[in-house]
Amino acid sequence: MTSHVIPFLAAPGYAHIQVWVEALQKAMPDERILAFDAMSEEAKATCKVAIVANPNPDQLKQLPQLQWVHSVWAGVERLVADLGNTELKIVRLIDPQLASTMAEAVLTWALYLHREIPAYARQQAQELWQPRTYTRAQQRTVSLLGLGALGEAAAQSLLRAGFKVCGWSRSEKSVPDIECFDGENELPAMLAKTNILVCLLPLTPDTTGLINARVLAQLPQGASVINFARGAVINDEDLHAALDNGHISHAVLDVFETEPLPVSEWHWQHPHVSVLPHCAAPTDRVTASLIVAENIRRYRNSGELPQTVDIVRGY
Question: Cβ neighbours of residue 61 under 8 Å, at least 6 residues apart?
């Protein structure tokens, strides 16, 4: 039935449209999943739900009955910005596998910094045999900016490794064994005790440029930063200055305002930066497709939408 044709729409030039179509079709055999370009005009005229990966907004406008879209990404700031002032409901991906993968990445790179791997790499380049003083994990505090599903999973992995863990969110939260802070007024108190700051915040008007010179200065001398959120959460010039003057000892950066990161950018050659190609927590197509399928199945049966994005907040 054309009423059950569900299009998959992606950004122009996206190379994996057909792979997603096949994964989604396998997860929901009772539906008919098609790439947008393969839809008939009749199907476009009756389509009520679409599955998207940062689509071209002009294509969405060709679906006059469209009521909601299900993103296959956890971050939807670009989608929200592209759609502008819209009545279209947006559902973002909430996948436990994504949280587990992110928790693994946070622990990996926190340990990288904790065990001073960047310093040992520099010593190797200098042919210098010099053991460094060991600090126990229990003596280091890792603080998370963002205590959503990703932040909570990361916190648990850090706790199991023995770190002291703090977490900050916009509104009050309580997480077992985590020292929680909330709101702008409580952020400085957390920063003051932080050795490794991990950013997992969604990109919104409130978080754009949040990690600036003032915030970085509130971290102890020699603290490190990990950004697994979005590039624009960090003021790039302020981070550069804090690394150059030694206040921040190292930055692990997985996300940038322009991606791929241009070869001319300073991050590539900076001795105190680790550059990653937005690989900390890739979406798992199999688990993501199953979650999208279950949300659409419930919608077909009850007419109720999954939790939708608050357009004002941006997530």
Answer: none
Report helix, strand or coil for 310.
coil
Q: What is the pTM of this model?
A: 0.93
Collapsing DSSP to helix, strand or coil, 152 comes out as helix
From CA 116, how far away is CA 269, in angstroms rounded? 19
What would the pLDDT profile of 225-263 be if each residue is shown by its tens digit? 999 999 999 999 999 999 999 999 999 999 999 999 999
pLDDT digits (tens, 9 = 90+) for 100-156: 999 999 999 999 999 999 999 999 999 999 999 999 999 999 999 999 999 999 999
For residues 193 and 253, membership in a common domain is answered with yes
Locate tokens 């959460």: which residue? 233
Which element (helix H / strand E) includes 274? strand 273-275
Among positive and negative, which fits the CA dihedral 215, 218, 219, 222?
Answer: positive
73 and 129 housed in the same domain? no
Cα separation values, 249 from 196, 210, 255, Å: 10, 19, 19
In whole angstroms, what is the distance from residue 52 CA to residue 202 CA? 18
Q: What angle do CA 251, 168, 92 make, to 5 degrees?
A: 85
Check whether residue 195 and residue 120 sit in a common domain: yes
What is the domain extent for residue 250? 96-275
Q: Which residues are catalytic?
A: 230, 278
* Proportion of the chain above pLDDT 90, given as a percent: 95
Average pLDDT score over the chain:
96
